[in-house]
Amino acid sequence: MKYYLNFLWTYLFFINLTAFGQTSEERSIISQELPINIYWSQILSNENSYFIVGFQDDDAVLYNLKSNSSIIISAVGMKMFSFISNDELFFGPLGSSFETDSSKIKVLKFDFNGKSKGVKNIIGSGVIANYSTIPNTKDILYVTIELMGYMGGMMDGIIYTSKNSRPVIKFEYIQSPPPLRIALPVIAIKEKIYLAFENEYNINVYSKSGKLIESFTYPDFNHQPYSKIEVELLSPMQKTTTQAGITYPPIIQKIDISGDGKIFITRFLRPGSLQLFVDVFNGKGRYLNTLEFQLDKNEKLIDACLISKDKYACLLSLDNSTSIVRIYKFN
Fold this sequence. Notes:
The chain has helices at 228-232, 236-239, and strands at 2-4, 14-15, 27-33, 39-45, 50-56, 59-64, 69-73, 81-84, 89-92, 104-110, 116-123, 127-133, 140-145, 154-161, 166-174, 186-189, 192-196, 203-207, 212-216, 252-257, 263-267, 275-281, 287-294, 300-308, 311-317, 323-329. The chain is mainly beta and 331 residues long. The strands form six sheets. The protein has a five-stranded antiparallel β-sheet with strand order 1-7-6-5-4, with no helix packed on it.
């Protein structure tokens, strides 16, 4: 079923863009209100389009920001993780585990009109931590981590390709106990795979065959542990395992790569913060500058995504029923 939604221009104002000590520049912002009573969860973009994905019961809602229209995709399953290629939309379970080495998990495929393109069965070991499409192929990457083998902060993980469910990369990383997050940022672009971890500012770059090519970081990033005020803003479960001055928050939320090859690293918002930081690197991993986006005090960040080489979008909730998309433009 297809229905059309009005595009609402709510306001236009300015943000600051900070880079290498330059003076701040004026940048416009467009905010668009989304339909109510839908659980909006993600922003998706490819070379030509960008969408907002939400859920209503077991149905998915795909909102096209360019055409200002939406479609309903029936019986997808509540709160599935979504990702896209240039011509297909995928829904897969995040956090699901393989019962045995031969058990299968289903990833659903659709075109952008909501027509089913079939099911991709994947096989692996551990708990699914993320997905990415592989450019110019019909394959996908998926990351798994071994929660059962979690000892002393060290986590084991594997990146698979859906072609024969073949393990491509095996890795280890450190995560604070207990592992409250399972999602690891991953993206495949051209001939490279980019993977980031939980408690360190480090991006590993692999070849499609799994060889580690390089790693890069933001050399001046100063990671600080949670303050007492920040700990009080955490959920009850997080509070039980978090100590002010000792426990560190996660750093990297998402990796995006623009059409001109720049790498955008979106950091997590610290508890209570209204400043979203996105670090920009060139294609060789050299730090260029940091974009800073200011949120309003009544807004909660749901997702953020690069949607073109000079536009960045944030999905924000204002209350239990109202969400907006804000599009920032920068140089």
